[in-house]
Amino acid sequence: MPAGKPSATRKAKVSTEAKSAYFLTFKLDLIKTEMINRANAVYRPACGVDVRSLRVLRLICDSPGITATRLKELTLIEKTMLSKLMADLIARKLVRRTIHPDDARHFELWPTEAGLSMRVASDELGQSLETEMLSMLSAEEREQLNHIVDKLVAVFRESR
Hints:
CATH superfamily of the domain at 44-134: Winged helix-like DNA-binding domain superfamily/Winged helix DNA-binding domain
Oligomer: single chain
CATH topology of the domain at 44-134: Arc Repressor Mutant, subunit A
Order of helices and strands: HHHEHHEEHH
């Protein structure tokens, strides 16, 4: 093969990689991963927890008394991982749990004062992080993006 000319196999591989970059799910995954990595680099030193833990804490703050089953449905976090995250939040005294009054097999999860305070601080930090990470978009573009994503989330949640 002449020097400098790519093989047919290499062309096929590059073509496949280039095509996969165009799928929306792939691009959304890249965006999500990069945004979470950047957020974790700020949240861990500032709050002592990562994005997933804060997501769980926020939902508990928004729905005091929520059950782990409902939390799993809302967060889409695998059961074992969610159990670890909840145990950590409880150990940090950000969340407390009580036995469900209607079914002793279930627990209700409640934010503590420290958990509510962390939620407020992390929300402020999260707003500034999101603004910074999306700074290349105009205010109108950010609004459009949020509208489109909210619409897709609603449709997919309804279909489950």
